[in-house]
Amino acid sequence: MTPEEFREQGRRMIDWIADYWKSVEQRGVTAPIEPGSVYAALPDGPPESAAPTAETWDGIFRDLDEIVAPNLMHWQHPNYFGFFPANSSFAAILGELACAGMGVQGMLWETSPAITEVETRVLDWMADLLDLPESYRSTATHAALGGGVIQGTASEATLVAMVAARARVLDADPNARPVIYTSTQSHSSVIKAAMIAGLARHPEDREHLRVIGTNADLSIDVEQLRAAIDSDRAEGRAPAWIGLTSGTTATGAFDDIAAVAAIRDELCPRAWIHVDAAWAGVAAVCPEHRGFHAGLEHAESYVTNAHKWLLTNFDCSMFYTKDRRSLNRAMSINPSYLKNAASEAGAVIDYRDWHVELGRRFRALKLWFVLRQYGVDGLRSHIRRHVEWTEAFETRLRRDERFDLPTPRSLSLLTFRLRAGDEPTRELHRRLNASRRTYLTHTLIPIEGAERSVIRFCIGAPLTERRHVDDTLELIRATAGEVLSG
Ligand code: PLP
Question: What is the rounded average pLDDT of the residues 119-144?
Answer without folding.
Answer: 97
